[in-house]
From TrEMBL:
It comes from Pseudoalteromonas rubra. The lineage of its organism: Bacteria, Pseudomonadati, Pseudomonadota, Gammaproteobacteria, Alteromonadales. NCBIfam families: amidohydrolases. This is N-acyl-L-amino acid amidohydrolase. Its cofactor is Mn(2+). GO terms for molecular function: hydrolase activity; metal ion binding. InterPro entries: Amidohydrolase, Bact_exopeptidase_dim_dom, Peptidase_M20, Peptidase_M20_dimer.
């Protein structure tokens, strides 16, 4: 045999042995961390905190990352934590993100670690609950951090662990979430090349993974319309300007924007009114009517068109009847877009974790996620982890944000492994 061929064969064999050993190593680390992830999740679930107030959760995360000998920065966007794990070899910086905040929901599950925490939210005494599964996201990312820290000598690159506050929205009058973390410079400082995130869902069973390439979750924006007229007696409407009648026409006109003025063959969109308020008595036409609603959309150009057309429609309908409309568009989260090339690149990784039978190509989701801000800066991939116990029908499971929402603990090993494999495979493919 040719000596060079022999050398190459030996190198290939030794390389395969090394890769196999690495795989065995991190499989062992994943197994060791599994009970810890469950323990962390139970503790966080029992001690939930609302957005921008995740003080205890952030302290728990920071302590864990410091124990893993990472560079740790705290106090970002109020309570955010970033841990930087530097590998022994050069390579890309992979960002992994978990959101930490709970919701103003009173838990109704009968769990030994159920939340009994309460708070005053917008003047109402309510419970606090991890009704969207962010407790599981934090615990799984803490688990992935421990596994990857145990492999730092083998890592060809760096890992940026982002524990984010206020994904569900900041308290009134405050900024928050991914947008504020970016505003405070985390990407400029740590310069990730790619961002990965996941969200547990009751709409899939444990062992299933939902994914989609391209636009995946909708933008979510709010509009407020104030129609100002002239108050008069209900028996003489001609003596004033009726904002109620104008408001009714505005509702009809705005509802025609999506159905008649936006090219929805490009991407779907939704405009919904959620509240109309005006007047106090049956025979008094009031001076003002106020309306609020939501805009959901999967294309940023369409989004801008809808904003402009709502304003134009409301102002001109009001003007035609002697009223005046003041329109305010409050921009929320952009469209969450999974980078098509990155999605295609990582599908084999996901199939390795969930198997071909566990891979579910999801329809578009009209809910929103502020992971979208990260994915506007670097290629991003955001996936959905099945959280309903095997054998149970996910169609009958309580949805995220329900007081009965529950995540089966057997799902956590899949999420922890997915975050780990995302990192290792992306780094390997970048070499």
């Amino acid at each position: 045999m040719n000596k060079s061929i022999l050398s190459l064969s030996l190198a290939s064999i030794l390389g395969a042995v090394t890769i196999g050993a690495q795989a065995a190593d991190h499989a062992s680390l994943l197994k060791q961390v599994e009970p810890k992830v469950i323990e962390w999740r139970r503790d966080i679930h029992q001690n939930p905190e609302l957005g921008n107030r995740e003080v205890r959760t952030a302290a728990k995360v920071a302590k864990h990352l410091k124990a893993l000998r990472m560079e740790v920065e705290t106090g970002i966007a109020y309570t955010g934590v970033v841990g930087m794990l530097k590998g022994a070899k050069p390579g890309p910086t992979v960002m992994l993100r978990a959101d930490m905040d709970a919701l103003p929901v009173t838990e109704k599950n009968d769990l030994p670690f159920r939340s009994t925490k309460t708070t005053n939210y917008r003047g109402v005494d309510v419970g606090i609950m991890h009704a969207c599964g962010h407790d599981t996201h934090v615990a799984m990312l803490m688990g992935a951090a421990e596994v990857l820290a145990g492999m730092r000598d083998e890592l060809a690159g760096n890992v940026m662990f982002v524990f984010q506050p206020a994904e569900e929205g900041a308290p009134e009058g405050e900024e928050g979430g991914a947008e504020l973390m970016l505003k405070e410079g985390i990407f400029k400082k740590y310069q990730p090349d790619v961002a990965f995130g996941l969200h547990i869902t009751s709409k899939l069973n444990v062992g299933q993974l939902g994914y989609r390439s391209g636009p995946t979750m909708a933008s979510a924006d709010r509009f407020e319309i104030s129609v100002k007229g002239e108050q008069t007696h209900g028996s003489t409407p001609w003596a004033g300007a009726d904002p109620i009648a104008a408001a009714a026409q505005i509702v009809s006109g705005v509802n025609h924007i999506v159905s008649r003025q936006i090219n929805i063959t490009k991407e779907p969109a939704i405009v919904s009114f959620g509240k109309i308020a005006g007047g106090v008595r049956n025979n008094i036409i009031p001076e003002e009517v106020n309306m609020v609603g939501t805009i959901r959309n999967f294309d940023m150009d369409n989004r801008a068109q809808i904003f402009a057309k709502i304003t134009h429609t409301a102002e001109h309908i009001a003007l035609a009847s002697g009223n005046k409309a003041d329109v305010k568009i409050i921009e929320g989260y952009p469209v969450t877009v999974n980078d098509p090339a990155l999605t295609a690149q990582m599908l084999p990784t996901l199939e390795k974790v969930f198997g071909a039978q566990g891979m579910i190509e999801m329809p578009k989701v009209t809910g929103a996620e502020d992971f979208s801000f990260y994915a506007m800066e670097v290629p991003g991939l955001f996936v959905f982890l099945g959280g309903t116990a095997k054998g149970s029908d996910p169609r009958e499971a309580a949805s995220n944000h329900s007081p009965y929402f529950i995540a089966d603990e057997s799902a956590f090993k899949f999420g922890t492994r997915a975050l780990t494999e995302f990192t290792l495979d992306y780094m390997a493919q970048a070499q």
